[in-house]
Design goal:
Blueprint: H1 25-29, E1 32-34, H2 49-60, E2 68-71, H3 73-83, H4 85-89, H5 94-102, H6 108-120, E3 126-132, E4 148-152, H7 155-167, H8 172-177, E5 186-192, E6 198-203, E7 214-221, H9 225-228, E8 235-240, E9 246-250, E10 256-262, E11 265-270, H10 283-300, E12 304-311, E13 314-322, H11 333-337, H12 346-351, E14 353-355, H13 369-388, H14 398-401, E15 402-405, E16 408-412, H15 413-420, H16 430-433, H17 457-497, H18 505-548, H19 567-583, H20 586-594, H21 597-606, H22 608-625, H23 645-657, H24 661-668, H25 675-679, H26 684-731, H27 746-754, H28 759-762, H29 765-780, E17 787-789, E18 806-808, E19 810-813, E20 816-823, H30 827-830, E21 839-842, H31 850-853, E22 858-861, H32 869-876, E23 881-883, H33 888-891, E24 897-901, E25 906-911, E26 929-932
Helix pairs in contact: 5-7, 13-18, 17-18, 17-26, 18-26, 19-22, 19-23, 19-24, 21-22
Protein name: Putative phosphoenolpyruvate synthase
Biased composition (Low complexity): 915-933
Region (Disordered): 1-25, 911-933
Length: 933
């Protein structure tokens, strides 16, 4: 929420309005109502607005509401009359009226009435909140349409905040939200500011699940604004409304919270390490909160959405409103439990093998509504052509290639293997399916519901087509790679030179059309390198097992492939070079080390030494690596060039640890092992075959990493246009904030740019809210499996036992290490906490995590496969790694002493952080990590 205080100031004795002096101060004083005094509404029914009325009713009922008073709509009307604004309102432009209020001094008698009430409270820090007449009604919530100004203190700032709230009646977003141009009057609530330890929302009925007797609680550390804006992680609880017992809970690792940074300034800061993995609320507190919710529901006789907070163990209620949307009826089983987007025959529905392993590393994890809709665009417009780039003659139906389940993207392995049977290397479908199956699925008796690809003439034509295509690919792969690199640099430089804010809607449409065409071409160009590297790795694994027996187990991960120059590994070296340049310039280093992350880029550019550093080091680095980011197909995530905070965090880390380039080079240049000795035991023909396969794997891997930057840059270009559309929608009031861009549908963005339709009609508020609710629902659910056959009931997933001390996963990178665990959920906020040698424990990684691997002692992930990013990069840095543990982030705590065995695929907790006699990681005498033989 906006916490900026207006520059308009009004002293307590502010002068007269244009309408002349005020002669009846008592009349104005009567328009200021202390909430809870004199009955639920203090005799001012209909003048307190929705929020004010509800708070007055809660106070009168004896519920724990912080002290507050309300400036009624009558006082607002008096202000408009006495300043002459009322006479101008009819037919006036809303923005003009808003500017008039912000630029007009408050008449003295009205200001005195406000400040008298503020003085009666003792002049504490307060939150000043708008309260519209239709706000929090059963028909419309008006949530977020009018302004709230937090953590205000002092007479002038309180008056400024009141003017801000009054002016927001004519804000763009409020004007758009109303179904008529005629605004209602506006009340304002001034309430004591409670700097809560824990905040959240509580629903007296589950808004996304029709099951009865469920009080749903979401709780976060700090102020509730972080939860409302979606910037922080929250715990999820369900309380039975009859027994007041906690029947379900999901505790998330919480890195950040919204809290006061300094008086009058609210922002994001870190959660104390000790509070990150523990529940925000105890079961006793949840019972107390549940009892309050039942009282409120009984008071109104309807289901309620309640905002609350806890300070020093005491609950406070900040708002309640009727729930305006009810949970939908359960979806059909196929729609709820299957990734298919369209109905399918029963054998296909129940027999399809689905996987989200290794699908480009860019679809990993839960995606937002915008990310999912962009993935659907890719499915319909790009993916089948990518199959064609592999030499597949019949690329099939686009809707069957991919599926979507509980916010995750899945590849249809059954259909893909059916189509890839047209190609000689994957004629036997098992060569493909076995690479995309985690241990949850046993393929011993599996039969593909799509059958086998037609034989006869179709087979012959497909084989000839594949041979011709492959011959062309082998001759063109290097030259195409260079063309993609050159094109990337051209497109990147061109995009940096564009000012999208100055483009018309039609021009922006042309830019998106151009970017999507390049997005199409770069994905098609990248796909053969990705799949061929995948295929040669699989062939190497198979040949090692067949020809070397037990000596060949895991050999494919020990063979020195001399791939230390891979683009994703090279980025870690380049971060070190930038860090070294910063270290050598005290003025630059001071800014990077001491200033808030969000201010560093600006402060560097404002400083002469900083500007030189930026031009000589940051700009070349960003040109080479800047379009990297977390979960790259999720276009809501900023890239390094959009937000370089992570780079500054890694500079801090590299400088603090004294990490040298020799350390990185030593880790990424190979180590002495027995691979050549083992290969030397083979007859010369077989050894030559393996050497050839290793060479081809290395070549395809290098080309894949080189062209990957072109592929992800194409996504960044699309993101730029989408966020420019989002910026305009926020400015026009169609969206409440930039956070809501994540809840748009990509097809709506395209439709809006392609035509002349009004934005309000294209971006329907009901659909945006529905998308947000569904995304919040998906966030609550357990992580779905990497692979499954047919349908899967995710709600049946069971949380692991909390006392588990041993985990099993995939042995991704060899070696064995003992070290302290560090749970990392938010890369930007936690990079500076990570100590060299610690064991990185996280859900999954992608290319943006690579610089952290350069200092990690080991890597453990919840999900992943032998060719996921975490596995590949761990092997290149020779960091022991175990992936696909399912629940390491839930069963391991930061500071636990753990053993990671990258040969056996096990992770064992040998000492809990709670029982460590030497203190937390990084304490004197406690090694961060120690390798064992």
């Amino acid at each position: 929420m906006d916490t900026h205080v207006s520059d308009t100031t009004t002293p307590a004795g502010a002068g007269e309005g244009p309408a002349g002096p005020v002669t009846d101060p008592a009349r104005h004083a009567a328009c200021v109502v202390t909430l809870g005094a004199g009955g639920p509404t203090g005799g001012h029914r209909g003048e307190l607005g929705g929020k004010g009325t509800r708070l007055a009713e809660l106070s009168a009922a004896g519920l724990p509401v912080p002290p507050a008073f309300c400036l009624t709509t009558a006082l607002f009307d008096a202000y408009l009359r006495e300043t002459g604004i009322a006479a101008e309102a009819a037919g006036a432009d809303p923005r003009t009226l808003r500017e008039r209020i912000l630029g007009t001094r408050m008449p003295a008698a009205i200001a005195d009435a406000v400040l008298d009430a503020y003085g009666s409270m003792g002049r504490p820090r307060v939150a000043v909140r708008s309260s519209g007449l239709r706000e929090d009604s059963a028909a419309q919530s008006f949530a977020g349409q009018h302004d709230t100004v937090l953590d205000v203190c002092g007479d002038e700032d309180v008056l400024d905040a009141v003017l801000r709230c009054w002016a927001s009646l004519w804000s763009d977003r409020a004007t758009v939200y109303r179904d008529t141009d005629a605004p209602d009057a506006l009340a304002v609530v001034v309430q004591e500011m409670i700097h809560t330890d824990v905040s959240g929302v509580m629903f007296t009925v589950d808004p996304v699940n029709p099951r009865p007797h469920r009080l749903v609680v979401e709780a976060c550390q700090g102020l509730g604004e972080g939860l409302v804006s979606g910037q922080v992680s929250s715990d999820f609880f369900v309380v039975d409304d009859e027994k007041l017992e906690v029947v379900e809970e999901r505790v998330r690792y919480k890195v950040t919270k919204c809290a006061p940074l300094e008086p009058g300034r609210i922002g994001m800061t870190k959660v104390d390490a000790a509070a990150r993995s523990v529940p925000c609320l105890t079961h006793d507190q949840l019972r107390e909160l549940g009892a309050l919710a039942v009282r409120i529901r009984d008071l109104y006789g309807s289901e309620q959405d309640i905002e609350w907070g806890v300070r020093d163990g005491v609950f406070h209620l900040f708002q309640t409103r009727p729930i305006t949307t009810r949970p939908a009826a359960p979806a059909a089983p196929s729609g709820a439990l299957s990734p298919y987007v369209a109905p399918q025959p029963e054998p296909v529905l129940n027999g399809t093998l689905w996987s989200r392993m290794d699908i480009g590393e860019i679809f990993v994890g839960l995606m937002t509504p915008l990310g999912l809709s962009f993935a659907r665009y890719y499915q319909r417009n790009v993916h089948t052509d990518c199959a064609g780039a592999l030499g597949v003659r019949d690329t099939g139906e686009a809707d069957l290639h991919m599926g979507f389940y509980q916010g995750h993207v899945y590849l249809n392995i059954s259909y893909s293997s059916y189509l890839l049977a047209q190609c000689l290397p994957t004629r036997d479908q098992r060569h493909f399916t076995s690479r995309f199956v985690s241990e949850e699925v046993d393929l011993a008796d599996y039969e593909n519901p799509f059958g086998t690809f037609p034989g006869g003439m179709e087979d012959l034509l497909s084989t000839v087509h594949w041979l011709q295509h492959t011959a062309r690919e082998m001759t063109q792969m290097k030259s195409r790679s260079q063309q993609m690199v050159d094109a990337r640099l051209y497109e990147f430089d061109r995009a940096r030179g564009l000012d999208l804010t100055r483009m018309s809607r039609r021009e922006l449409h042309g830019e998106l059309h151009r970017d999507l065409a390049w997005f199409h071409d770069m994905h098609i160009g990248y796909m053969p390198y990705y799949i061929n590297a995948f295929a040669f790795y699989g062939l190497l694994t198979e040949l090692c097992a067949r020809w070397l027996g037990s000596d060949g187990v895991g050999l494919q991960n020990r063979v020195k492939t001399d791939m230390s120059s891979l683009r994703t590994v090279e980025s870690a070296k380049e971060v070190w070079s930038v860090a070294q340049a910063a270290k050598n310039d005290p003025a630059v280093l001071r800014i990077i080390k001491d200033e808030p992350l969000e201010d560093i880029a600006r402060l560097l550019r404002e400083d002469p030494a900083g500007q030189r550093f930026w031009d000589r080091h940051m700009e070349p680095f960003l040109r080479a690596n800047g379009t990297r980011g977390h979960q790259e197909m999720e276009i809501t995530h900023p890239r390094w060039i959009d937000d370089p905070s992570y780079i500054f965090q890694m500079i801090r880390r590299y400088v603090a640890d004294g990490f040298s380039i020799d350390d990185i080079l030593r880790r990424s240049s190979g180590w002495s092992d027995d691979s050549r000795e083992v290969l030397g035991r083979l007859p010369m023909p077989k050894r030559q075959v393996l050497d050839t396969v290793i060479s081809l794997y290395a070549l395809c891997s290098e080309l894949r990493e080189t062209t990957r930057m072109s592929m992800i840059t194409s996504i960044w270009l699309v993101r730029n246009v989408v966020y420019e559309v989002g910026r305009r929608l926020v400015a026009d009031g169609v969206l409440h904030s930039p956070d809501e861009i994540a809840h748009l549908d990509f097809e709506d963005v395209r439709r809006y740019l392609a035509g002349d339709e009004d934005a309000v009609r294209v971006f329907d508020r009901a659909r945006i809210d529905a998308a947000r609710r569904l995304h919040e629902h998906n966030k609550r659910l357990p992580e779905p499996p990497l692979t499954f056959v047919g349908v899967h009931d995710i709600t049946a997933s069971v949380r692991p036992a909390a006392d588990g001390a041993r985990l099993e996963g995939l042995a991704a990178s060899p070696g064995r290490i003992v070290g302290r665990a560090r749970i990392v959920e938010d890369l930007v906020w936690q990079a500076d906490e990570f100590e060299a040698g610690e064991i990185l424990v996280t859900g999954y990684t992608d290319a943006s995590w690579t610089p952290l691997f350069a200092i990690a002692g080991g890597v453990v992930t919840d999900i992943g496969s032998m060719l996921s990013h975490s596995s590949i990069v761990a092997r290149e840095f020779h960091v022991p790694s175990v992936v696909n543990t399912k629940d390491a982030t839930q069963r391991i705590n930061t500071g636990d002493l753990i053993v990671v065995d990258g040969d056996a695929g096990t992770v064992e907790v040998v000492e809990s952080a709670d029982t460590d006699p030497q203190g937390p990681p990084g304490a004197a005498g406690t090694p961060a990590g120690a390798t064992t033989d």
